[in-house]
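FAQ: What does a multi-protein file look like?

Like this. Sequence, then tokens, then the next protein.
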Amino acid sequence: MADDEFTYATGFGNEFATEAVDGALPAGRNSPQRAPLGLYAEQISGTAFTQPRGVNRRTWVYRILPSAKHPKFARIPNGHLAGTPFDEIEPDPNRLRWDPLPLPAQGQRQDFIDGLYTMAGNGDIRTRVGIAVHLYAANHDMTDRYLVDSDGELLLVPELGALVIHSELGSLRASPGEIAVIPRGIRFRVEVPDGLARGYACENFGENFRLPERGPIGANGLANERDFRTPHAAFEERNHAVQVVQKFGGNLWAADYDHSPLDVVAWHGNYAPYKYDTARFMVMGTVSYDHPDPSIYTVLTSPSDTPGLANADFVIFAPRWLVGEDTFRPPWFHRNIMSEFMGLIRGTYDAKAEGFTPGGASLHNTFASHGPDAATYASASTATLAPHKLEETLAFMFESRWTLIPTRQAMEAAHRQPDYDAVWSGIQRHFR
């Protein structure tokens, strides 16, 4: 399915109005006595009613049946999905790295829900703080199956194959190099148009992701509002049984509906799925010497109750020019109060010579010492410092103020690299 088969309302956090059938949006009233075309009016509130206007998120939908029309949900197995509290194992200060999540075996049908695999997390779903980090691998469409995450919003980062996300508010296609965000409480299903899909997901229990403040950067740079895209209204009419899976309190529940939950014919508001092409990120960097902090690469942030200390940041390391004079250009040796989960979409990461491949992941928790491996240091510290462009690379980081506690399955996984510490073992003394 080509991306140009979708059309979008563009912007970020703005008010949108879109209808799949002319006349489906009521004129002038959110909840008229009778909505047009025999539809039902319903509001989806992604924030408390009285939160400040600048962060308030809500959408009015006009649908064939109200979402209240459904039977009781019942518990189903969680598979490889986990929620808070992340306390299976005691916190481990060691640096961790994994090879890519294995793809489904030959003959195994695995949709997006079945393919979710929890790596680590922190915080508390019940008090809406913290994040969970998941991987996904799928080879089968969700056809008569839907998912709604009541615990957090999902930031999806495809690495292999595109995702087509059909939601209550319309459809988005996210390919590697793009991201998609599905707000908490929005029902959706995922198709895998390339036959295989793999990637990363940050489940954000805290404040909704938003654009970071630019501070001294000023009015331009980083991610721009105009480059975020939300879907036009689309709807499904189905008269046969479908399954709706709900993630609630860290567990999976399911109910059989007699209709599709994606039956919204029109909507207006600012609480909707969106996508972003990371190639549109306006990278900022030094043009003299030394490094800016990696926060300069932040695309989205979920603030906490402490200004500047994020519940979660989504950071990318995109193609860019390196021109710093008398500067060690790869990321430097570093210890950080924040916890860093990294993934790689394509190419190589400039701080690692080998072992960190597309689909792989690393976790450097609070104050874990990390930085370039021995081979990278030896090469970069003696390189001729001509202007150099990093190309065909895209790495990212989910960063959190709290320690990310791995799951037992991640620690015991066959694709975990048990000898990750060895990448620094070749570093030599040069002190004179």
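And here is the next protein:
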Amino acid sequence: MIGFDLTEEQQRMKEMAHEFAEKEMRAVAPEYDEKEEFPWPVMKKAFDVGLLTYALPEEYGGAGVMSHVTDCLVQEELFWGCAGIATSMGGIMLGALPVLLAGNDAQKKKYLTSLTEPKKDGMPKLGAFCLTEPDAGSDAAAIKTSAKKVDGGYILNGTKHFITNGGIADVYTVFATHDPSQGVDGIDGFIVEGGYKGVIPGKKEKKMGIRASHTAQVHFEDCFVPDENRLGGEGDGFGIVMQTLDHSRPIVASGAVGVARAAFEFALAYSQERKQFGRPISKQQAIQFMLADMATEIDAARLLCWRAAWLLDQEEGNTVQSSMAKVFGGDIAMKVATDALQIVGGMGYMRDYPMEKFMRDAKIMQIYEGTAQIQRIVIARFMIGFG
């Protein structure tokens, strides 16, 4: 039996996230976007109400909201509020995911618990997921960051690129190779503390969109990581990465739905107020068809997210379904933002209105967490038996 009724917990989480997005994020989103500053005050408020670590188990200090469908509901609302701030928030759980999925009991107790505890100044601790490199984006297996085995641990050397919360995180999950000749079988995962010697913040990027998020390089220069901080067995790193992305892509896709919904709602309201030829432009069939398509596409994208997340909740494989959700959600975010701006017209192109921000934010949804083209490759390979 298929049903779409939300549980009481899901409805409560959705409403809490929406209220936070409306009251705490939307009011300050233009300022943080314009200044390209990290939203520390908003992050603290989110931490205080539990929106940063709600998906972590209660035994580690989280809220124990382990339903992936619930996660989709929450992230749609937060990205509806501001994609940049929501990306900063989501970077914490993305960094924690490899530990949650592949960490041993001691690693989970130490590092997941750490993320649920505030710093001395009350600010939240940040996590970050370090995979992408200057020469290894879509081809994650081509990473060059090295992990040299030494007595008691590993020495990491290399540079990670486009890292959310990079250079300001307290806990990093880092993927490096102990033997490039082994390809994916030579990749290991590590938990690296931000305070370790040899963890060096790099260039902060100036971005088209999601400007409230901190995206930067992270350099590892002779950084010693103890044996007990390796995730899984030697050579397990690439599998951990793939498992992490299967979990994260429905969430990112839900964020894309949130951005699309924000753009659609603004255009819908504008079309009912803006008058041309003696009546609201929403009375024009050309505009009506655009609005109808947008509403339909948003709903379809949302349902793909829910299906991919539901499969995770059933502990079933979802690689193809998560890629479908990601590629469709990202494409629809961009399409809806473009069409919504067209409806708003010249005013939408002006920075006094939020439409141009929605459009700038939407574009990243087709790029990060695996480009739209990579998602299509994943889907096609499973279809023709190369998975």
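Q: Is there any per-entry metadata?
A: Some entries carry free-text notes. For the entry above: The beta strands are 127-130, 146-150, 153-164, 171-177, 187-193, 199-204, 215-226, 230-231, 275-276, 279-280.
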